[in-house]
């Protein structure tokens, strides 16, 4: 299938996700979302609003109950879909780094290209070292994760996600586990990726950053995309009362 820059990289159509039996707890309610190529979509909302679950559904770590998720026009939630094939095209960075502690940074980064994508060791290590250098970790390639600061570990996790040349990058609260002084160095990497045209969806509590870097902001509340628009629209003139309440508390806390 051929795609163009007019087609969304990612499309969610009436996506519904519940936990528990008999309807249980509805976590995502009929979510519709389009993500255009070379854009950043920021998911904002209170804890428990469904942001992380949405990202997990996109990466097929969670099975949806209804609706469809399309990657470049292909329904990746079709039961016949091979999840591993889909994940080859999607990079994911979690808040907890998830680096293998018994492997060097270089081995962490090259594991998926070599084992999943069949890239030769020399090529995989060459790209890994190039990415590590670009993200300020060139001298840390042979270190083990426990020798790195939190910010360095998160940057290494981003390098690992980029090493597979993803079509789409998902970032799930990647600064949540960091000390405040380390947040800036990780966000600067995301800012650089945006400038390079990477298509990204990020769940974040960093409202100022979302306002600066996002092309589209989606406010989730109880599993519903209650409001969406440009940062100027959502942050500057929110239409929904719930959005206004959420942002007013953010302003009071000095986070916007």
TrEMBL record:
Annotated ranges, domain ABC transporter: 10-247
One Pfam entry name: ABC_tran
Keywords assigned: ATP-binding, Nucleotide-binding, Transport
An annotated Gene Ontology molecular function: ATP hydrolysis activity
Domain of life of the organism encoding this protein: Bacteria
PANTHER family named among the record's database cross-references: AMINO ACID IMPORT ATP-BINDING PROTEIN, PHOSPHONATES IMPORT ATP-BINDING PROTEIN PHNC
Homology family: Belongs to the ABC transporter superfamily.
Protein name: Polar amino acid transport system ATP-binding protein
Species the sequence originates in: Streptomyces candidus
Lineage: Bacteria, Bacillati, Actinomycetota, Actinomycetes, Kitasatosporales
């Amino acid at each position: 299938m051929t795609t163009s820059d007019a087609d969304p990289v990612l499309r969610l159509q009436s996506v519904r996700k519940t936990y528990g039996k008999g309807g249980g707890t509805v976590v995502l309610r009929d979510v519709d979302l389009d993500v255009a190529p070379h854009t950043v979509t920021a998911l904002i909302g209170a804890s428990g609003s469904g942001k992380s679950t949405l990202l997990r559904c996109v990466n097929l770590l969670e099975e949806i109950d209804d609706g469809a998720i399309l990657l470049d026009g292909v329904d990746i939630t079709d039961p016949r879909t091979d999840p591993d094939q889909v994940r080859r095209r999607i990079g994911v960075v979690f808040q907890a780094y998830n680096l293998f502690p018994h492997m060097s940074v270089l081995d962490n980064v090259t594991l998926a290209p070599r084992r999943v994508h069949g890239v030769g060791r020399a090529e995989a290590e060459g790209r890994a070292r190039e990415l590590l250098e670009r993200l300020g970790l060139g001298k840390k390639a042979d270190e083990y994760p426990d020798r790195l600061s939190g910010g360095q570990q998160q940057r290494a996790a981003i390098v690992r996600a980029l090493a597979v040349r993803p079509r789409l990058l998902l970032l799930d609260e990647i600064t949540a586990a960091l000390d405040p002084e380390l947040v800036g160095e990780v966000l600067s990497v995301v800012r650089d990726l945006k400038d390079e045209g990477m298509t990204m969806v990020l769940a974040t509590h960093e409202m100022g950053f979302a306002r600066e870097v996002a092309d589209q902001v989606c406010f989730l509340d109880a599993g519903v995309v209650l409001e969406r628009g440009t940062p100027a629209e959502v942050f500057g003139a929110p239409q929904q009362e719930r959005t206004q309440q959420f942002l007013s508390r953010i302003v009071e806390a000095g986070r916007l």
